Amino acid sequence: MVCCLIQAEIPGDSLLMVPKLFKTTAPDDCDACGCAAGNGSSGFESLLNPQFVGLKYFAQHYKAKENLFVNDLTQDQYFNTLQLWAKIPVTEKLGVYASLPFHFHEKQTLQGNVRISGLGDASLLGIYRLLKSGDNMHQLNGGAGIKIPIGKFNEKGLSGVNPGFQLGTGSWDYLLVLNYTFRKDKTAILLNTDYTVKTENRKHYRFGSQWNYSATGFYQISGNGNIIFSGKAGMQGEVYGGNRQFGEILPDTSGSALYGKIGFEAAFKKISLGSEMMLPVYSGLAGGNLEAKSRFSLFLNIGI
């Protein structure tokens, strides 16, 4: 699901001079469940990376129609995640990505505000470099992994417009990712796609599988010795399948959304800092009963 990573060695003032720059790595795994809300993936991308441990904050805002007698989307829903993540190299071509999120969510209802907090589902993936051109301008990475159901799944959370108001899916889910990087001089383009296959949990509930895709452009604004600063902008889309309960597809649980995004990444020696703002271009979630409003992320990573 929503950005992003660190680089162990910071480049000089020319991106083309540094072969390690623009290696794409691991996902932004702020996963709750269901149709969009809480499931924001910012893609599998970064400008500064290749191995790191870090901490990331990810916030999402939605409007929901909780009152059946009112046509307006009046109820605010806020999804907040603090995520511990890392990418550890195994070989020159293979890396292992792991993340553990802590969620603290809040939504408005007719009965008052509802809050939940706790650990979310952990993720573990292997990322393998499939292709790299001799001039380092092109690189293709692929990966696969699992999402481990650590987060609590509560059946009471299914009663609202957004059944994704959860700490976890309650199911073992499977992840596939593919990303491509093109870089030249001070410019780079990252194309990313990932797919999450969600399975049925013990309560016989299955959240819809999810496809994410994104295109992001980077430009190095400044760079001198151990310091580099780059801006980024792009688009990101998400498509959600319908949820199922006891094998039956539930109405108004599928949907899609498209976001525009802008942000920056900066690094000094082994410390990397970045932020990203996302606003919806299109929001078609939960049969029109849920609307994406905004997303914001901030990360701090340390190279290893």
Structure description:
This protein has 304 residues and is mainly beta. It has a single domain, classed as Lipocalin. It contains no helices and 16 strands. Mean pLDDT is 83; it is low at 1-26 and 29-45. It has a 12-stranded antiparallel beta barrel with strand order 1-2-3-5-6-7-8-10-11-14-15-16. Strand 10 (210-224) and strand 11 (227-240) form a beta hairpin. It has strands at residues 52-64, 75-89, 94-109, 112-119, 122-132, 138-148, 173-184, 187-197, 205-206, 210-224, 227-240, 244-245, 248-249, 255-268, 271-285, 290-303. InterPro entries: FApF (IPR025737). This is Transporter.
The span between the termini is 24 Å
Q: How many discrete structural domains?
A: 1
| Largest beta-sheet characterization | 12 strands, antiparallel, barrel
DSSP helix count? Answer: 0
Question: Uncertain segments of ≥5 residues (pLDDT<50)?
Answer: 1-26, 29-45
DSSP E strands, number: 16
Proportion of helical residues: under 10%
The CATH superfamily title: Autotransporter beta-domain
| Second rung of CATH, namely the architecture | Beta Barrel
Quote the average pLDDT.
Answer: 83
What is the CA-atom radius of gyration, in angstroms?
A: 19 Å
- The CATH topology is Lipocalin
Structural class by secondary-structure content: mainly beta
Order of helices and strands: EEEEEEEEEEEEEEEE
**Strand numbers in spatial order across the main sheet:** 1-2-3-5-6-7-8-10-11-14-15-16
Organism: Chryseobacterium hagamense
Protein name: Transporter
InterPro entries: FApF (IPR025737)
Pfam family, one: Phenol_MetA_deg
